[in-house]
Design goal:
Low-confidence stretches: none
Shape: globular
Number of helices: 7
Radius of gyration: 17 Å
Number of strands: 8
Strand order of the largest sheet: 3-2-1-4-5-6-7-8
Structural class: alpha/beta
Largest sheet: 8 strands, mixed
Strand content: 15-25%
Bound molecules: NADPH dihydro-nicotinamide-adenine-dinucleotide phosphate
Helix content: 40-55%
């Protein structure tokens, strides 16, 4: 499989790159800093030097970067089988009622428009795969069904919007064989999740990859802990 992961230089994204490459896939690790991407690859190659992995300079807020990445990939591979929209930011802890508009916009720019740019650009390359899958890494903080806390309005709003985008996109491409799902990784020990989180990146990513391999996945749905969950 040919796989592209955004924000692959650290955290959950890096773990995706590691596990997918070690499983024999060809992995393209998106990183907004090329140097960070190369460092991540050197780190991953310590587990096995012969894996197929390379970095792509890719800031998901830059349409230029996204187009350059697409132009590069379409000459390198015949099809893209898996796109993981993982890159995200979590800035601002205020509620939606008092968060600064610039913070709200920044969150949307990365966490919503980033995946939108990626999907729009890469759909042609995904369509040439026999089993194409888009995975939007979402969060239970974007859920509307079982909301338990407030605050972090910019992040919550961006992830709710990403969920909505997932459902609309699935419908709009249902005349193709492209599947698109939103997945929550749980609370994970990364820079974003903090060290008190109850899951390691290894466990979380292993569970998500297991889910992605499930041929019964329903496009346009939200998944958490391997199960479908209401929005
Ligand atoms: P981290 O903060 O550890 O890593 C975020 C990654 O996103 C980094 O590689 C970062 O790159 C990248 N990134 C941020 N902005 C951009 C951009 N504009 N273009 C490209 N890359 C960018 O986060 P996690 O690994 O914890 O999170 C990964 C995903 O999982 C996110 O979508 C997050 O919302 C989601 N998630 C995480 C949870 C957790 O508990 N950790 C819980 C629920 C969801 P750089 O190094 O350049 O900043």
């Amino acid at each position: 499989m040919n796989c592209l992961i955004t924000g692959g230089n650290r955290g959950i994204g890096k773990e995706f790159c590691k596990q997918l490459a070690l499983a024999g896939n060809r992995v393209f690790l998106g990183s907004r800093s090329l140097e960070d991407g190369i460092n991540a690859i050197n780190d991953i190659k310590r587990y096995s030097p012969d894996i197929q992995i390379q970095t792509l300079q890719l800031d998901v807020t830059s349409i230029n970067d996204v187009q350059k990445a697409y132009n590069f990939l379409r000459t390198e591979i015949l099809c893209l089988d898996l796109l993981i929209n993982n890159a995200a930011i979590m800035h601002g802890s205020n509620g939606v009622h008092n968060e600064e508009i610039t913070i709200l916009k920044e969150a949307m720019e990365t966490n919503l428009f980033g995946p939108i740019r990626m999907c729009q650009a890469f759909l042609p390359l995904l369509c040439t795969s026999s089993m194409p899958l888009i995975v939007n890494i979402s969060s239970e903080m974007g859920l509307l069904s079982d909301k338990e806390a407030g605050g972090y309005g910019a992040y919550r709003l961006s992830k709710s919007s990403l969920n909505a985008f997932t459902a609309h996109l699935a419908f709009d491409v249902n005349n193709t064989h492209v599947k698109v799902i939103a997945v929550c990784p749980g609370w994970v020990q990364t820079d974003m999740g903090g060290q008190n989180a109850n899951r390691t990146p290894e466990i979380s990513v292993k569970e998500m990859i297991h889910l992605m391999n499930n041929r019964e996945l329903i496009s346009g749905k939200f998944y958490r802990f391997g199960e479908q969950h209401p929005w």
